[in-house]
Structures are given as C-alpha cells and as structure tokens.
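Review form for a predicted model. The reviewer records the input and the model, then writes brief findings.
Reviewer: anonymous (R2)
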Amino acid sequence: MKKLLLTLSLATLLLTGCMDFQKNLPQGPWLGVIRIDSTVSDMDLPFNMVYEKNIEIEVMYVLNADETIFITEIDRVGDSVFMKFPVFASEIACEFRHDSLVGRYYPKGVAAGTSYAFYATPGVEERFPWFDEEPINDVTGRWSFIENPGTPDSSVMVGEFTQNGSRVTGTILNPTGDYRFLEGKVSGNRFMLSAIDGAHTLVLTAEISPDGTLENGKFMGSPGWKSNWRAVRDEEATIPRGDRLIRLKPDAKPFTFAFPDINGDTVSLTDAGFKDKVVIVQAVGTWCPNCLDEAVFYRDIYTEYKDQGLEIVALSFEDKTFEASVPKMKRFAEQTGVGYPLLYAGPRGRESIRAVLYPFEGIMAYPTTIFIDKKGKIRKVETGFSGPGTGEHFDRYVDETRGYINELLKEE
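Model under review:
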C-alpha cells in the first residue's frame, strides 16, 4: 500500500475524498512533499520528518542533513492538523486522508495567503524514494556552481557536497551567504537535493554527465525563484569574502541610529550603555535564514563576552509598520534566545537598508555586520553570513571572528 501511495501523483491525492481515521498520527518516519509550483510536476520538494508523541507533548522533527527542526506548535481541529515552524512564520495546514496528510504549506503564514500543495506519507525514510538506482558516480568535493550559464544573469557560486552510498549532503555558498543544510541522493545519473527550514524551500536536480560534470541543472525556491545551472569539479573554487564586498565611504558621516526596541523604547548608538564598549551592529530580518544562523552564533558570543565589554544590537528590517513587525521580532528573539536588543529599523528592502547604513557602499545583504571599537570608530564591516551548514567555512569564520573580537576588547 505504501509503495502504491508513493506512486500516486499529488493531484490524485488532493482529489481523494475524506474518510474516518485514527486521531493519532503514526509515530516514526514520514515523507513530506511540497509542490512549489503547481505548473511544474518534476520539481516536487521531498523532505524527511519524524513524529513522536507522549502524554505531555507531540513533536514533528523536520530533518535536513545535520539540522533537526523541532515543530512543537501543533494544533488539532477534528481531522485537521496545523503545524507552525519555529522562529519563522511558515505553517502547514492539513488533514487526514487515508493514512496520509494532505493540505497546504504557507511559506509566510496562513494570514499571508500564499501557499503550496503539501502531502505526507508515514513509514518512508528515503528522501527521494521514487529513484532507487545504484549511483554511477561520487559527487563528494568542491564544485564551481554556475547559475544561468551563458546569460547576462549568470553568477558563480561554490558547491560543497559529501556522498555516502547514495545519500548526499552539503550546501551551496554565494558571496552573501549559503543555502544552509541540503540533503538528497544520487540515483543512477540523477543528482537531487532539497531542504525546508521554515524560510527556505529549495529543490535542485541535475544529470551527471559521462565526464563527471553536473549538467542540465534545475533549481527552484519559489514560483518566481527559478534558475538553470551546471557545475564542474574545482577544489580551488572560492567566493569573495564578505568584508571585501562592502566598505566605508570616503569622508563618510559618523554612523548613528535611534530606533524602537520590541517594547517601544528608543535605543540609540549614543546611549550610555554603548560608551567605551566594543559594539557589533547587525542589519537583519526575522524572515532571513542566514540571519537566524548569525543570531545563534552571536547569541553565544554575547553570552561569553558581554561581561568583558562587548555589546551587540540588531537593526531589524521587517514589515511596513512597527506594530505589524513586533510579534515577529519577539518570536525571533524568544526562539533564538538572543540576549541583546532587536530594534525596528523599517521595512525590508534595498532602499531601507541603504538609508540606515548610509556610511557604507557596495553590496548590502541580510545580514550585514559592523564592528565598532571602544572609541566609537568603525573598524570593519562585512555582508552576508555562511552558517554551520558550510562546514569548514563556518569553522574558519568562528575562529577568525572570535580572534578579532578578542583583539578589540584588549584595546584601551
């Protein structure tokens, strides 16, 4: 029966009538599937889940390579199930049909309206179970990843993949961040990766050519975020450092700000609490997955160094109004555990971040991070963030940043 269900198309599942079911979800592994674009049937996004329940709590674990996402906000209304991802606004709203779940995935929350078709089947541990051939190649290593090759929109990124049997994990790095934890497989000459983390919905496919390159690649992140790609092995492939993409303008005016925190109290860089301190200023968004990774990193940095003279403040670019943005900022702060203030800096967008970060020029991605010494001088600015999904890239960044903060704290 499970094999039959896996061969059913999403459209067929969505048309199946409701029946009577057990009120309890089967515990153990589940395969979730999202159809990001209703017009494209060969780019469905599969992802692994594990459901557990005891007397006090039920949890749906979403698995992406080395990342485990704990969904604990699960509500029931009859045969309907509502699951809200942590940190971000995304939600799954579904109902029991036969032994499966069928419904919609709302990437920005139910209230925002936009949704993709979703279904999930219990007892399935494979991520792309409909492909089960022996792999013809091993993709382990570093790749030069060319997006939209041969077009004016072409760009070069770096792919880092590790293959164990048919299972593949890794990520793709671009100059302003990374695609976080990707997982998939090689089946025959097919290469497949996917991820869902509450902010990203990503699926990539390609063919492994006889010479070992990845050809005819397709990428989809949303109905409007699609591209073609190819990749070639290149152990020397690199991307520009984040501190080389943005710089202080010549003769720039002194940097300052004054914005409300989540309680409505104005916080300014001229406040006494920042005087004679090393200050790290972040430009972030609670909707930004790379900002999540950076927040978790700096949460630990702040805990370690705040008694030694370090202060951190995040300028958060959100919805058009303070009132609409505060619940998202509070949720982000509570669920990441950051102990430093988040300030509402205005609506998200290129114009807003450039207006707030007026002393700088170059690329301004989310996040962008400014390092200010005890005398109030800007010592470094960097844009983008490559998180723990990038392995040694992240480890190197951690060591370099800790060393730099220590140097600033030692200065008189």
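Findings: DSSP finds six helices and 27 strands in the chain.
Further findings: The first strand starts at residue 28 and ends at 35.
Recommendation: see findings above.
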